[in-house]
């Protein structure tokens, strides 16, 4: 009888040991790497050609840095020279016909407006990107500003 109990206890222990939670073998998915495992090199998608049509795109939200509606190939942008400012500086806009940079670009982090571009806005391509006919990498249900400010019943995009 006692041997039987011992056997039962041992087999129960063995059973619980084998019922360890296992991580389901879900394939690793990444928006840029796809299903390529981390230790292998992914085949990068082709880079979409830059739109160069001079058509300003609507902004998705009020504080979005506008996309660049022209090519920027070969424009020098480093500590020695800023080709963008040659056209976009407020002092150059009348001559170049470019949209002058917003006043926010002359404001430093203490809120003071400077007479030159603020260092934190010097490297334009940190925030502004050229336009391309590229598909979004991830889906989203973002609601634009006019909709956010409406009472929920009048929003066109339902959350
Ligand atoms: C030769 C002059 C010139 C240079 C250099 C230039 N731009 Fe432009 N940019 C323009 C003009 C003109 C427009 C107005 C739209 C158009 O004609 O393409 C414009 C439009 C833009 C806009 C859109 C603004 C809006 O309100 O939507 C952005 C952003 C921009 N440029 C960023 C840049 C950046 C960043 C660089 C440097 C990498 C740069 N530009 C260099 C002339 C220039
Ligand atoms: C830290 C991010 C950042 C950097 C760096 C930056 N911008 Fe912007 N830019 C923005 C944002 C955000 C807006 C829209 C909100 C605003 O006006 O401040 C904007 C707006 C603009 C506009 C539209 C202005 C208007 O009145 O419609 C132009 C043109 C522009 N930027 C050009 C540039 C150029 C040229 C540079 C480099 C000298 C630059 N930006 C650097 C974030 C940035």
Automatic annotation (TrEMBL):
Keywords: Electron transport, Heme, Iron, Metal-binding, Periplasm, Signal, Transport. Binds 2 heme C groups per subunit. Its main location: periplasm. Residues 1-19 form the signal peptide. GO terms for cellular component: periplasmic space. InterPro entries: Multihaem_cyt_sf, NapB. The keyword Disulfide bond does not apply. Heme c 1 binds at residues 70, 84, 87-88. The keyword Oxidoreductase does not apply. It is found in: Periplasm. One of its GO terms (biological process) is anaerobic respiration. Heme c 2 binds at residues 105, 124, 127-128. GO terms for molecular function: metal ion binding. Component of the periplasmic nitrate reductase NapAB complex composed of NapA and NapB. Belongs to the NapB family. Electron transfer subunit of the periplasmic nitrate reductase complex NapAB. Receives electrons from the membrane-anchored tetraheme c-type NapC protein and transfers these to NapA subunit, thus allowing electron flow between membrane and periplasm. Essential for periplasmic nitrate reduction with nitrate as the terminal electron acceptor. PANTHER family: PERIPLASMIC NITRATE REDUCTASE, ELECTRON TRANSFER SUBUNIT. This is Periplasmic nitrate reductase, electron transfer subunit. It comes from Paraburkholderia xenovorans (strain LB400).
């Amino acid at each position: 009888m006692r041997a039987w109990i011992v056997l039962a206890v041992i087999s129960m222990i063995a059973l619980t040991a084998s019922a360890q939670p296992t991580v389901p073998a879900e394939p690793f998915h990444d928006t840029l790497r796809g299903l390529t495992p981390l230790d292998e090199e992914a085949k990068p998608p082709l880079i979409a050609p830059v739109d160069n049509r001079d058509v300003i795109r609507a902004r998705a939200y009020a504080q979005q840095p506008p996309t660049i509606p022209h090519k920027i190939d070969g424009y020098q942008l480093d500590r020695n020279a800023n080709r963008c400012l040659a056209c976009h500086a407020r002092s150059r806009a009348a001559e170049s016909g470019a949209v002058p940079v917003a006043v926010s670009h002359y404001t430093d982090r203490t809120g003071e407006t400077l007479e030159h571009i603020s260092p934190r806005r010097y490297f334009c391509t940190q925030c502004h990107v050229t336009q391309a006919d590229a598909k979004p990498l991830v889906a989203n249900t973002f609601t634009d500003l006019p909709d956010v400010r409406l009472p929920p019943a009048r929003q066109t995009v339902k959350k």
